[in-house]
Amino acid sequence: MPEFLTACPRNCYSTCAMKVTVEDSHLMALEPAPANEATAEGLCLKGLAYAERAHSPDRILHPLRRQPDGSFARITWDAALDEITGQLRRTRNEFGPQAILHYAASGTKGLLNQCSLDFWRHFGGCTTTYGDLCWPAGLEATRLTLGANIHNAPPDLVNARLIIFWGKNAAETNIHQMRFVTAAQDRGAQLVVIDPRRTQTSERAELLIQPRPGTDGYLAVAVAQLLIRKGQVAEEFIGDHVEGYPEFAAMVNEVPLIELARTCDVPVHAIEQLAALLGTIKPATICAGFGMQRYTNSGQTMRALIALCAITGNLGRPGAGWAYANLQSHVFAEVRDPLASLPPAKPDGVVRVGVSTARLGRDMLALQDPPLKFAWVERGNPLAQNPDTHLVREAFAALDFRVVVEQFLTDTARAADIILPAKNMFEQTDVFGAYWHHYLQLKPQVLPPAGEVKPETEIFRALARRLDLLDAELDAAIPGPDDEAVRAWLDRQLAPLNLSLEDLAAGPVIAPGAQEVVFADGVYPTPSGRIELRSEEAAARWGLDPLPRPTLPVECAARADADPATPLQLLTPNTKNRIHSQFGNLALIRTHDPQPEVQIHPDDARARGIRFGDRVRIHNGRGGITVLARIDAGIRQGCVAVTNGWWGSDGGLVNKLSAGRETDLAHGAAFHDNLVEVTRA
Ligand SMILES: Nc1nc2c(c(=O)[nH]1)N[C@H]1C(S)=C(S)[C@@H](COP(=O)(O)OP(=O)(O)OC[C@H]3O[C@@H](n4cnc5c(=O)[nH]c(N)nc54)[C@H](O)[C@@H]3O)O[C@H]1N2
Ligand SMILES: Nc1nc2c(c(=O)[nH]1)N[C@H]1C(S)=C(S)[C@@H](COP(=O)(O)OP(=O)(O)OC[C@H]3O[C@@H](n4cnc5c(=O)[nH]c(N)nc54)[C@H](O)[C@@H]3O)O[C@H]1N2
Ligand SMILES: [Mo]
Asked: S-S: 479 plus which of 53, 431, 489, 601, CB 3.0-4.6 Å?
């Protein structure tokens, strides 16, 4: 049976290399491929579920048109494209092209994703989003402090003697990293986890600290205060490499330890324990996850955490560092800088970058000159995954016309007028980098598109033909019609890097220029060339304190103005067996995760008369959902957690409860900045 080397293009740290076996246009088997050193062993259950996902009877295999009664009926491609081009022409004529919203999210990775905007530019323009649901606060905090979002290669973690997982649940979200953690522990390394929840990751840790959500900045400042007081800072490293240390040191001493401890609600002895570990064990790596990105104060929190690496000299050495995002494989011009999706200082007059991803619903409704009339959605499920579901739904409902390109009948697809069937990862060749390891990987086409599926590139080419736009320039920008043309286009993207598709076909390739140990030369590409604990850019660009002085998130039970009607902090983290809203509909995954549950502390449950398995209503002023109660002493008292990514049909649309608010840095989404009450349903 033919076997192919490929790689998983999900928005996931691991983006595993894998080997797939195909027979009669059917995916028969999937295995890990050891050529990617970071993901050499073990596919996750989602990876194994591709065999079901690719051939699922629920997959959308032909265009669908919404009927007056709300159901969907099969239509031909001709009918679909005719109606869409008619609507596009009408919208452009009446309101201008910027009345069209192009919305794309993180459903799949690949260089070909950039082709969509080429279509819209040729069409005359569109409106699109800025910011990101996921990681911008930490990206910008890292850029401001260290100058670049890079970290040591994943296997280097085995050299660490101390590993701190700070708001990262790698045992679920980056399972391959745990191999290196185990190897480091076998060599005597200690593992600390900082998370309001006990997780599969904390099961392996010597120390678990469970701070009040959104207050990690106070915890970091408390640790810094102790390190300075005990003389456990790396004076020479600070002298050589750190900018703004005296001001930082003065700032961390402003508030007494006991008060900082009270704010983050961590016992002083636990803070002392953490400080003693960081002060005495070298090298140490802080693996900072996305947990802290989901608050209005996330950027400043992340800056305070990076400072701990800086003042202990844990940078630029094997086993040491700040492991947040490793963008060393982001080597292609169009995808190099994830922060490039910020609103451009100089708009190009064609693409209006006018809607904040975090405030999608509100901004869509508010936009004028022209207002939005038409939405095109691909690789995203905003009716489930963006904050403030009610407003997003209202904004989509207010449009004249909606097109959603999807594999399955998601909540967003159900809101469409026309659904176009989307390809999957096995049906089109593409190339992509990663954000944890530093490989470039090829995913070849190994299956013909199922049913009447067309990849986005072919959809746009077909639309362009109908709109009389497919000139030589667009024909070169959006490759087609066959795999040969796609491969030639990818080769052209790789050529400036002195790479070819053939190189990638042989196996994952370490991105040109990628380093195993970063910042080893002591050069930090910040304005001062040093690690900036004090950042003038943080103040000038984002209006923040130039120092990472902690503040409380907007919705936080510790605030004097907190609403007593909603005393519980709702966390909606990721989970092992889904990628956001993907995979949860498959039979294999449903045997493990059949329905949404809320994790609630026994004391909070008892106070509300809630017993294990009760149906409970989680609610606040924005909305509510009804789920089953899972009483669990592993979660901090005062917090409740429901994993994100459930569909409306499961009753678990967690973003009905979240507010459309941005993070303090770089337009992220403050999903967990969210107070609720839980009552028996
Ligand atoms: N299996 C799987 N893997 C994935 C994904 C997936 O959906 N499923 N998604 C991928 C993507 S896009 C992302 S962004 C990453 C995310 O993966 P991670 O970086 O692990 O982030 P989260 O799962 O969002 O949150 C991690 C932990 O942070 C904790 N947390 C919440 N608030 C706080 C806080 O205020 N302080 C601290 N210290 N901890 C807090 C949560 O309880 C959670 O256990 O995973 C990627 N990998
Ligand atoms: N409450 C809460 N909400 C969150 C988060 C949280 O922690 N809490 N996390 C946020 C994070 S970290 C992220 S990254 C976002 C993710 O948000 P999204 O990127 O919107 O979510 P996904 O569910 O990963 O993917 C969206 C859709 O893409 C489709 N898709 C996959 N491949 C293709 C393709 O090739 N073409 C097309 N057209 N479609 C395709 C999938 O079927 C899926 O329905 O969610 C965010 N939402
Ligand atoms: Mo994400």
From this structure: 489
Ligand whose nearest atom lies closest to the CA of 406: 2
pLDDT band at 348 (very low <50, low <70, confident <90, very high): confident
Q: Which atom of ligand 2 is nearest to the CA of 385?
A: 47
> Is residue 116 lining ligand 2, measured as CB closer than 6 Å?
no
Residues making up the chain, counted from first to last: 681
Q: What is the mean pLDDT of residues 148-155?
A: 97
Nearest protein CA to atom 32 of ligand 1, as residue: 291
Pick the CATH number of 568-680 from 2.40.40.20, 1.10.3720.10, 2.115.10.20, 3.30.450.40: 2.40.40.20
Helix (H) or strand (E) holding 269: helix 268-280
Structure tokens at 609: 């008369």
User: In b/e form, how buried is each residue of 404-428, taking b as 16+ CB within 10 angstroms?
Assistant: bbbbbbbbbbbbbbbbbbbbbbbbb
CATH superfamily of 136-327+517-542: Dimethylsulfoxide Reductase, domain 2 (3.40.228.10)
Contacts of 348 (CB under 8 A, 6+ apart): none
| Domains of the chain by residue range | 64-130+353-426+452-479+486-496, 136-327+517-542, 568-680
Between the CA of 215 and the centroid of ligand 3 the distance, in Å, is: 21
| Ligand that comes closest to the CA of residue 357 | 2
Determine if ligand 2 sits within 6 Å of the CB of residue 107: yes
Tell how far the Cα of 135 is from the centroid of ligand 3, in angstroms: 6
Q: What is the pLDDT averaged over residues 391-409?
A: 98
Q: Per-residue pLDDT tens for 178-212?
A: 999 999 999 999 999 999 999 999 999 999 999 99
Q: Is the CB of 134 under 6 A from ligand 1?
A: yes
Measured distance CA(128)–CA(362) in Å, rounded: 14
DSSP secondary structure code for residue 594 in this structure:
-
pTM of the prediction? 0.98
